[in-house]
Specification:
Length: 157
């Protein structure tokens, strides 16, 4: 066996061990997601939505948001998540303001309710699992986009 082949085999073995040690998380384990969010320093409470699927209630910067679970089988084995925050604005906002947001942002989109109050949502597919690090970074992205959106709609003015 050549030195190059031995090095390649050794590198492959180390990669397999590293992959085996990587913790995967998904919407199928809501309690694990709650623990991760809490470890990041955020409040997180596991609840149920109106059809019995899991729901995580949380908040940041004085704004409540929910994480909804989708693709569940009998309220378990969920496949995806949706982060959602709503903002009750006295005068609401305009479709034009949200169109500007949606045009510029890739990962989170916005819409208006019947009272022209804006909502921000971000969807996440977790089928097959994702690393805990990836979930933590995605949660950080949500926090960042939520802050940007609040500035965009003048929420903290």
């Amino acid at each position: 066996m050549t030195t190059k082949m031995a090095a390649a085999l050794l590198a492959t073995a180390f990669a397999e061990v590293a992959m085996a040690e990587t913790t995967l998380v998904s919407a199928a384990n809501p309690a694990a997601l709650v623990s991760i969010i809490q470890a990041l320093g955020f409040q997180a409470q596991l609840d149920k939505d109106n059809v019995g699927d899991p729901l995580i209630r949380s908040s940041s910067s004085g704004v409540n948001f929910n994480i909804y679970f989708y693709g569940c089988k009998k309220n378990k084995q969920c496949q995806s998540l949706q982060f959602l925050a709503g903002y009750d604005l006295g005068d609401g906002t305009t479709p034009q303001a949200l169109n500007e947001w949606n045009k510029e942002k890739r990962f989170a989109s916005a819409y208006l309710d019947a009272e022209n109050d804006p909502f921000l949502q971000m969807d996440l597919n977790t089928q097959g699992g994702m690393t805990q690090e990836n979930f933590e970074k995605t949660f950080g992205l949500w926090q960042s986009l939520k802050g940007e959106f609040e500035n965009h709609i003048g929420f903290h003015d």
